[in-house]
Every structure is written in structure tokens, then in C-alpha cells.
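Per-record layout

source: Actinophytocola algeriensis
name: Putative ATPase
length: 375
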Amino acid sequence: MIQTLAVESYRSLRQLVLPLSPLTVVTGANGAGKSSLYRALRLLADAALGGAVAALAREGGLASTLWAGPEGKVRKGRAVQGTVRTKPVALRLGFGGDEFGYALDLGMPVPAETMFGLDPEFKREALWAGPVLRPATLLADRTRNVVRARDASGAWGAPGRIGLTDSMLSELAEPEVLLLRDRMRSWRFYDQFRTDRDAPARQSRIGTRTPVLGHDGADLPAALRTIVEQGAAGELADAVTDAFPGSRVEVTSVEGRFGLRFHQHGLLRPLDAAELSDGTLRYLLWVAALLTQRPPELLVLNEPETSLHPDLLPSLASLITTAATRSQVVVVTHAARLVDALPKATVLTLAKTDSTTTLDGQGLLDQPSWHWPER
């Protein structure tokens, strides 16, 4: 389980160190930095897949994602005008967990004759045992393009070289590196399923066994049927009737193309996916995502309350609570009713002061222990 999440110089997250629990809810006012925190977690996962550079490019490049305020401390209550940077550009992301910790430090490349002069480079990476970085707990270490790792006896192996834009997680084959990479690759993110008229979830398609719902929800019928055939038909029925008393969902197959029928109390015929309201379809998508019989190490949900009627939030909270018994879950939300329906969750309320995201009520002595690898 991840105990600590650390972010530095990513959008409004100038210096943020957060404690995480088996079920963590991140909330706060609009513009407080909730979406930035969600995207920072996604960027960490992309690093394990070797896609951190491409992910930053989709956000407009490293320069567009960096903290845009002044380098020095900001005096509370006083406006401060930003100045030209005097220190090296650094975007840092990391986490500490029960077994492993990991941190990356991205910066701009040394000027050279190339058209790819804006590709961020890995300046430092570190993998260690336990929640806090210490020299004695380091398992793999990287400075620019030079990387080294400990062998089975604990001794450092010969240094190697990797590309400046490649993560050591995607390049090294040491057991601890492979284990962490596989765990991070299992992290699962869901962010506002489409439910418009042309949404993929409203279309029938060839059904295949689907233990993990796709991010676009196109395989919803197959995912629901997989839940049934993997022995969780009762959980699925309970989740539907909890939200819509007297209702049930049925998966149909016509020449191998799967579709949905929603039987609702009071209606003379079932509704297919194309006829469902946005809220009903979105709730069924969350049912398929959260009742997965292949739970990930980490499950991150971004504003799951979108398009749901407030009366459905307690049912959604029940699904999230069940999911948290199988995976570590982080929920990013601004719905107070959903927060209230998750009494066992650790609630982190973000606030913004002088354009900087902070954790409400957290003082310097309240921060979890954290150390960045130095350049």
C-alpha cells in the first residue's frame, strides 16, 4: 500500500506531501488542485510504462505543467510577481509504500543540435525499500543516463547506461524493479465515462471475457457478464437493486454481439443501453468498474459523482467501500454528500493560497517523512 504521495512543481502543486490510506478521499473547492493531483498520479503510472515524456507532451510539454509561481517563499496575504527562473527546472513525483518507494525528477535537456529540445529528461530516479528514502535502503539508482542496481547479495552491480528519456523502470530487469513496474502498471484510473448519445457504452459489440472494464466503457455488457460468470452475480444484483429498487440488468447476445437490457419496476418492457438516462448508464459503468474480479493495486477515481443524481451517491459509496477491501482506492471528488457517505475514508481537503495548493490543516510537523533524491 502507498503510504505517502509527494509532488513538487507540478501545476499548482508546488510542494505537496500527502498521507494515503486504504481509502482516501481528496476534496476541496473548484480550482484547489484536485485535478492536478489526479493527473500527477497518472503521470507516475505513465513513467512505469515508459510514457512519461509522451504524457507530458499531451499536456503541452514540461514547461506548461511546471509550477508557474516564484521560486522563493511566498509571503501569506501579499501578491508576489514571478521572476525569471534561476534554478534548474525540476518536476518531481514520488511515493513511499509498505514495501517500496520510488521517485523521479524530470528536467529540461542540455541545449543541443536537435529538434527535440523540449523533451524532458530523467535527471534522477530512485527505487528503495520501505516508505522513506535512505542510502542503506536504495535498490536501484539513476543519475542522468547512468543507472545501477543492487544484486541478490545486496552489493551494487556495475553501472549501466540508458536513454535520458527512458525510465529505469522500463529498462532494468532486476527483480525488485520488475515487481514495482508490474504493480504500477496494474494501477487503474477512471475519469468521467462518456454517456452522451454516441457514447461507446450505448453501442452493442462483439463480447469477449472482460475482467477489467475499459476506460471508455465500450465493453460494459461484456464486463457485467464476466462479473456474473466469475461468481459475483449476487453482488451485481445487490448493487443494481440498492440504487434502483425492483430493477435488474440483463446481458443479451445476438450472434455474439453483447447488449444490455435494464428491467425497471413499473415499465412494461426493458430498456436497452441507448435508452438509458445518463445517470443510470454511468452508475452501471461504475458497477462494472468497481466490482471487477481482477482488482488492481491502486484504483483512482476522478469525480465519480458526475451526472449521478444525489440519491445514487450512497449506493456509489457502498461500491467504493467494497472496492477498498480489495484495492487501495483514491477518490477525487467535490461532492460533499459522497464524502459524508464514506465515513471510513481518510479525507484530504485541498485549498489554494497564493496560487499554491496546500493540504488544509497540515503544518510542517504534520507532513509524512519524505526525502527527494538529490541531483
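summary: The longest strand covers residues 2-10. The chain is about 25% helix and 25% strand.
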